[in-house]
């Protein structure tokens, strides 16, 4: 972080000093503007999550975050240094240097997120617990990050049966606090299977926190590490009293303006593609080019989603709703292609302009499936507290799925979005959607 901030100021001052005699009059302006730009880049990188310690961030996601940072950082650099007095010599060169420094910072962020050096500096994690929950935390962390430094497992007072290999258990060196300090632990993940009286040594955990050791519960751990909210390890109290779920008026207005501007722009750019798609659908099979189907939207309201028809006209001739599957034989040849590259979703932009959907949000489902899933999956209805989206966090993070188990996995990403949604996250999801379209991956 300090390297990034220092780099911007250093580059700007280095260019100024290279100007010789004129440098003396320019340095005060360059230093103040350089510090202002460095502060702005710090805010941008913080908002895009570059300074968060996430174990399983892909190179694609890091590049998307960097691109998002550049979208804001480069115009800011130009705007800030355009305030330098016009009489300043080589003002254009200084401005270009500042913009180059911003680009270098973003490239460094991507490198730092995936370099071996960072792997050697991973947070030292102690897992408090030895049961099934603790074992899940350990295996998940190792799968997400092979270089993760798990120092071991510390058994809870009332955990009778351990599911962790004995070799991975930590021999206590006094209390939990004393053991954590002795091992140089940076973070403790509380993953106790049993929480009866005496199982949670609150005083010791508080002491750990006072000594600078981060203490997180299992639900928060999964949220920060996997960018999802694990249904199996969350309760209503955690959702109610934790942070997030900000649905303020300002956020609603900003999101609506964002939806109108971007959906209108995308519609204009893709009109030729949509026209060709309509012709090809009509040539291949009889029936309408578009189809409308009832879906559940914000607060459970019913609306009709608009999409290009990708299946045969008699796809549900028996009248019984069916999940669409990965290699569904009801899909036409043109349908397979437009579903793969998401062209079939483009007409939903009209739903966005009408205010029934948003560009980014949970995928809208049919009432039949919603009723079934609400009865089977806890907190499923929470996803209806925001508008459904053309694309979403679950769509870019989870492969294709058409079962209740898949719905649970996707819901965990949807809950994360509903809890943490911001304009920056929306922009990131849109950038990742482009990557998904280009690679043909992702959920449908």
UniProtKB/TrEMBL annotation:
Localization, UniProt: Membrane
InterPro entries the record matches: Bact_transf, EPS_sugar_tfrase, Sugar_tfrase_EpsB_2
Main location: membrane
Domain (Bacterial sugar transferase) ranges: 255-438
Transmembrane regions: 32-51, 63-81, 93-112, 260-281
Keyword terms: Membrane, Transferase, Transmembrane, Transmembrane helix
A matching Pfam family: Bac_transf
Highest taxon, organism lineage: Bacteria
Topology relative to the membrane: Multi-pass membrane protein
Family per record: Belongs to the bacterial sugar transferase family.
Identification of the protein by name: TIGR03013 family PEP-CTERM/XrtA system glycosyltransferase
Native source organism of the sequence: Roseateles agri
């Amino acid at each position: 972080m300090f390297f990034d901030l220092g780099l911007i100021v250093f580059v700007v001052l280095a260019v100024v000093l290279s100007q010789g005699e004129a440098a003396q009059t320019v340095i005060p302006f360059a230093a103040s503007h350089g510090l202002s730009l460095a502060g702005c880049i710090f805010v941008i990188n913080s908002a895009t999550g570059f300074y968060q310690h996430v174990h399983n961030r892909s190179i694609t996601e890091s590049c998307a975050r960097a691109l998002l940072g550049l979208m804001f950082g480069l115009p800011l650099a130009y705007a800030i240094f355009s305030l330098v007095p016009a009489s300043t010599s080589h003002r254009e060169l200084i401005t270009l240097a500042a913009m180059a420094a911003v680009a270098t910072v973003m490239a460094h962020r991507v490198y730092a997120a995936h370099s071996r050096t960072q792997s050697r500096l991973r947070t030292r994690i102690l897992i408090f617990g030895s049961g099934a929950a603790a074992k899940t935390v350990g295996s998940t962390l190792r799968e997400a990050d092979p270089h993760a430094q798990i120092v071991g497992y510390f058994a809870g007072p009332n955990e009778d049966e351990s599911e962790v290999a004995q070799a991975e258990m930590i021999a206590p060196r006094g209390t939990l606090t004393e053991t954590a300090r002795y091992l140089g632990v940076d973070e403790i993940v509380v993953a106790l299977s049993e929480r009866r009286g005496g199982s949670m040594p609150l005083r010791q955990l508080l002491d750990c926190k006072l000594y600078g050791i981060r203490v997180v519960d299992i639900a928060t751990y999964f949220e920060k590490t996997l960018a999802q909210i694990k249904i199996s390890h969350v309760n209503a109290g955690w959702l109610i009293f934790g942070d997030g779920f900000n649905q303020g008026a300002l956020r609603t207005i900003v999101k609506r303006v964002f939806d109108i501007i971007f959906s209108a722009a995308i519609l204009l750019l893709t009109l030729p593609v949509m026209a060709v798609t309509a012709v090809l659908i009509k040539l291949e099979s009889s029936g309408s080019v578009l189809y409308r189907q009832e879906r559940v939207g914000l607060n459970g309201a019913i609306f009709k989603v608009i999409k290009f028809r990708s299946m045969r006209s008699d796809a549900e001739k028996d009248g019984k709703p069916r999940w669409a599957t990965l290699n569904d034989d009801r899909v036409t040849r043109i349908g397979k292609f437009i579903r793969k590259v998401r062209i079939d979703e483009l007409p939903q932009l009209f739903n966005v302009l009408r205010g029934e959907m948003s560009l980014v949000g949970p995928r809208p489902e049919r009432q039949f499936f919603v009723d079934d899933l609400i009865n089977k999956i806890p907190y499923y209805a929470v996803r209806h507290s925001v508008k459904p989206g053309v694309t979403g966090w679950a769509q870019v993070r989870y492969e294709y799925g058409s079962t209740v188990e898949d719905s649970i996995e996707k819901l965990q990403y949807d809950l994360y979005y509903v809890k943490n949604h911001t304009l920056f996250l929306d922009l990131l999801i849109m950038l990742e959607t482009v990557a998904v379209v280009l690679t043909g991956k992702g959920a449908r």
